[in-house]
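Ticket #4471: structure output looks truncated?

Reporter: J.K.
Steps to reproduce: submitted the chain below (196 residues) through the standard prediction queue, then opened the result file.
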Amino acid sequence: MSKHKAIPKWIRQQLYEKYNHRCAYCGCNLEYKDMQVDHVKPVYVHNDIGHDMTESEMYDISNLLPACRQCNFYKDTFSLGTFRKRLQTVMMDNLRKGFTYRLAVKYGLIKEQKREITFYFERLQSDRDPVNMFEQQMTEDEQLELSEALDDFIQMYENRFEEQTEDEETREILLDEFEHLYDLVYLLEKKEIERK
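Returned output as attached by the reporter:
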């Protein structure tokens, strides 16, 4: 197994602040002293065995996430996809083997939920997306009104280009451009709403 390089305190502090003092995986609150720093792409797999990442890439802040002890331990040397899958399958299968777990389910003390797992850092990235941020700040009526206006705008131009464009590839390119335009107009409309 590899000998890990110490992660400087300033990087640890930056990670701690960036993720709101929470585990980047489960989202639980973390005390700074309890925070562990996880390598998203594990050192053992990508540096010791695979040799497909340099040490500077391995210890770059983009490959580091704050984690609680449980998540860091269970993620181990797995990729994010494998970690997610193991939480949904292997962990649940192992829990179901335990007598006390089965008894707790039987008495309704534990209720199992099958759902997709979205890590905290993924939810945070989604929340920081400009379109998502604007949607969260608008009332439902404002969102509906703006959405209807933009849909009408896009439909009008789609119809024009459908009439004028025979080539399927060109039509697809134009439709992609319209989607991009839709996002831009949405952002501009939001700024206008904020100014009022």
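Triage note (M.O.): checked the attachment and the full token line is present. The chain has a mean pLDDT of 78.
Status: closed, working as intended.
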